[in-house]
Amino acid sequence: MAACALRRGLLSTVSKYNKKHTHRILSVVDSSSGFEVYRPRLQCRACGLPSGVQQRRFMSSRPEGKILETVGVFEAVKQHGKYETGQLFLHSVFGYRGIVLFPWHARLYDRDITPPMSDSKPEPPGAHGSKEVKGKTHTYYQVLIDTRDCPHISQRSQTEAVTFLANHDDSRALYAIPGLDYVSHEDILPYNSTEQAPIQHELFERFLMYNPAKTPPFTARDTLKAWQEKNHPWLELSDVHRETTENIRVTVIPFYMGMREAQNSHVYWWRYCIRLENMGNEVVQLRERHWRIFSLSGTLETVRGRGVVGREPVLSKEQPAFQYSSHVSLQAPSGHMWGTFRIERTDGSHFDVRIPPFSLESNKDDKAPPAGYTF
């Protein structure tokens, strides 16, 4: 679907065209139902023709009853610097439309890169390997996802992945903000639009206002600034961990969610987001997970199971990525996690993909987790 074209069509085409060519982003609209089904393609304004074989494929395989409608105009991808609040974009892997709320500056620990001895992250006790990993600053963005695109990415990426501890007596109660995501800088394909409300999301007008005098023409409302400040400890992205095994890259981002009291003890909660990406040409399927969870209290837990979040995703060249979030709780303020995913090839053989070890650290301040979905 959209992810295939974006990864191998849109990104390469945008980088190859010079500044004289402006690209319109087109979407497919179901003329019978009025519901928009997103199928991005590129068109060159200078020549008026589709740019590339991948785009012609969309024209020829388009279902009957679909028409193309302009969504916006691509902008140059930023090789340096960061995107501002209000920047419209396409996700280069999952293909959805979104808008940037604000940036986060994280430390990326990439185990595929051999580091010097300084500025490195030591291995947790019992983790695989003995390699220390150097961290480098990397920009991520808090974004809103267009709700019209959520049904078309739900099998590849959760659209309710950003969760919080609810302010209830039940220490396990969680609530989610639908259509909120974290996006890496290299996954942003920026575009602009003449629409005053180009993104459909219930928080769009609460968080952003249209200001044609600005570039991009959407600025943060005080509501967004207040929400960011209030929820900063529970939204903040600090460490990102990445490792590749046999062309399957695993990226992990842990988030501290807060502490709750249960049965006269303290329970600390974390959310972790995992993205698996097939960097090769071979079709594979995730079959099993194997986790090792170490707590500062001295306990070591082993968790095995089929698939992840009830699924056994297939990773192919057409749909190379799968992203999900899950949760873990400890009766200690810190710990570590690491493990493997069992991957199956089309011939029935298996191999294990390493999950990079990552720390579970609680915030030093004792602020209470957010009390609810308030503004």
UniProtKB/TrEMBL annotation:
Domain ApaG: 242-367
GO molecular function, a single term: DNA binding
Gene3D superfamilies, A to Z: ApaG domain
Gene Ontology CC terms, in alphabetical order: mitochondrial nucleoid; nucleus
Record's subcellular location: Mitochondrion matrix; Nucleus
Protein name stated in the entry: Polymerase delta-interacting protein 2
Biological function: Involved in DNA damage tolerance by regulating translesion synthesis (TLS) of templates carrying DNA damage lesions such as 8oxoG and abasic sites. May act by stimulating activity of DNA polymerases involved in TLS, such as PRIMPOL and polymerase delta (POLD1).
Keywords associated with the record: DNA damage, DNA repair, Mitochondrion, Nucleus, Phosphoprotein, Transit peptide
GO biological processes: DNA repair; error-free translesion synthesis
Record's subunit section: Interacts with PCNA and POLD2. Interacts with SSBP1. Interacts with PRIMPOL; leading to enhance DNA polymerase activity of PRIMPOL. Interacts with POLH. Interacts with POLD1; leading to stimulate DNA polymerase activity of POLD1.
Highest rank taxon of the organism: Eukaryota
